């Protein structure tokens, strides 16, 4: 019996390693099925997941407010309650600002764009022809006219008339089923409101929840792995907190700068393009460039010269933002080289779509930081240094 226990104890690490390798291989080759399986059961916890997301984001201004009010209020419970109150006030102020100022103008811009879409397309094609003529490229026959576009779409299985007809039918059906739409909207709104309220409870007792989670982990995980898990968790939390807070502030700033630039230069679709820039700038590297292309095409449909000035002004604002604002707002806490930034966006974007592109940079930064620590520790134990691309072994 004793020999059997000794043999099992010797085999235990190998069994764990083989099991881990099998699970890892299965996840790598079947990650879509695994993700779909996880997502299916996560749907039952949607309000809780949203509440945790709200709490994580709201915790960023909450800590700033607590740090400021802590100089004047010494009672911990009172300080937490007042800080949460001001955090809620700040949140609703932002919502009201967007609801009463930004969103109405944004809806009006989208409405004008849709109503005059045909005219904008014709104007865009004429302006492209004018640009080709200006550069003496008239011999390039691009066949840019409405009939050719309709023919191309028809050959592709798309028909403008059918699209418009189907759109009208959809709108009509939506009008008929307005009660169902309203009930669904009410349900979604109620879910988000309950999640927001629940997030406030999470914030009010976050220290207690963290202690309880650590107790559960300590009861399950051995001490040394537990300390490593907590250390890695702290690193990831610092990176995600810095990235989320900095990226949100940076998105608002770049959107405001683009709006100010377009107002000064008297350009159309200012609020629409600024809003698109703010949203897309949440996606590093590609977001701002895509927003510039969309804005340039929209302005090109009205005025080619203004479109050129828009691209120039956009690049000036972006360079100013990248050189002056971004380092101060986001800082170097992410610490991810540009090459790995691009790779992470491609990989996680293809795996998880838009959500993957949003979390790609901080998630890869966590992997990069932890991996770098492991590699440097291994090199130090082996007494190896890399100097000027040369491998040096210490004696």
Write the layout of secondary structure elements.
Blueprint: H1 2-29, H2 31-42, H3 46-69, H4 76-115, H5 117-134, H6 146-155, H7 160-176, H8 178-204, H9 206-220, H10 223-264, H11 270-280, H12 286-300, H13 304-329, H14 338-352, H15 354-382, E1 384-387, E2 390-393
Antiparallel strand pairs: 1-2
Please explain how this structure is put together.
Helices cover 83% and strands 2% of the residues. It has helices at residues 2-29, 31-42, 46-69, 76-115, 117-134, 146-155, 160-176, 178-204, 206-220, 223-264, 270-280, 286-300, 304-329, 338-352, 354-382, and strands spanning 384-387, 390-393. It has a two-stranded antiparallel sheet with strand order 1-2. A hairpin with a 2-residue loop joins strand 1 (384-387) and strand 2 (390-393). The radius of gyration is 28 Å and the shape is globular.
Strand elements, count: 2
Structural class label: mainly alpha
Helical fraction equals: over 70%
Shape assignment: globular
Radius of gyration, whole Å: 28 Å
Estimate what percentage of residues fall within beta strands: under 5%
Q: Give the N-to-C terminal Cα separation.
A: 47 Å
- Side by side, the strands of the main sheet go 1-2
Count helical runs.
Answer: 15
- N-to-C series of helices and strands: HHHHHHHHHHHHHHHEE
Please outline the major beta sheet.
2 strands, antiparallel
Which regions have little confidence, pLDDT < 50, spanning 5+ residues? Answer: none
| Mean of all residue-level pLDDT scores | 76
